[in-house]
Amino acid sequence: KNEVEQSPQNLTAQEGEFITINCSYSVGISALHWLQQHPGGGIVSLFMLSSGKKKHGRLIATINIQEKHSSLHITASHPRDSAVYICAVRDDKIIFGKGTRLHILP
Amino acid sequence: DTEVTQTPKHLVMGMTNKKSLKCEQHMGHRAMYWYKQKAKKPPELMFVYSYEKLSINESVPSRFSPECPNSSLLNLHLHALQPEDSALYLCASSGGKLFFGSGTQLSVL
Question: What is the rounded CA–CA span in Å between residue A48 and residue A61?
Fold first, then answer.
């Protein structure tokens, strides 16, 4: 079993829809990262969380330490949000989830 | 400056060549990482440097040799690579939040 599980693996939605990507982990962590990777591109850090909730523009990330679960939400989704979203957890090293491939249709 | 700069962006090399990948950051981060990423897969950790000392080596073959000459620079020396080593090589640094370079797309012929 992977230490970091993301769901769904793939998601296609219409522009404007509310998007939720989930991440569950089985190890003790000091922080959780949500990352975004566009095709052929580098990786951008969206959030680093150790508790609670963070918001940046249309993006919201939450984490529940007791349940070992985090969610990334995108409100009013747009085609430019199409990318792979990766959850990564940190203890002494960083463990990546397999990513969620998001495609927003215009 | 909140960038991690990687050079070159693209590299094609033969199996007998020796080449180096370079990574630079000026954010004062003391943790730097090398990752390998195959198409449509998540990044795989190769090496971690903490305060310029190698702290994690994820059983990477010796044909990959990392070097951290100072707190701003991280190199990955490549020698006698195999075609299956073709991938995107990503450098990252962290002082909390993670910052990634745009990667070097490596093709081994």
Answer: 9
Q: List the structure tokens of B89.
A: 């090589």
Which residues from chain B sit within 8 angstroms of residue A31, using beta carbons?
Answer: 96
Q: CB contact, 8 Å: A41 with chain B? A: yes
Chain B residues whose CB is inside 8 A of the A45 CB are: 97-100
With a CB cutoff of 8 Å and minimum separation 6, the contacts of A31 are A48, A49, A50, A89, A90, B96
B23 touches chain A (CB under 8 A): no
- Nearest CA among A86, A67, A71, A68 for reference residue A29: A68
Residue of B42, B45, B98 lying closest to A45 (CB–CB):
B98
E-state strands within B1-109: 4-7, 10-13, 18-25, 31-37, 44-50, 53-57, 64-70, 73-79, 87-94, 98-100, 104-108
User: Quick one: tokens of A57?
Assistant: 């523009």
pLDDT digits (tens, 9 = 90+) for A34-84: 999 987 777 899 999 999 999 999 999 999 999 999 999 999 999 999 999
Q: B88 near B105, Cβ under 8 Å? A: yes
| Residues 40-99, chain B, touching A (beta carbon < 8 A) | 41-45, 48, 56, 90, 92, 96-99
Any idea what DSSP says for residue B40?
T
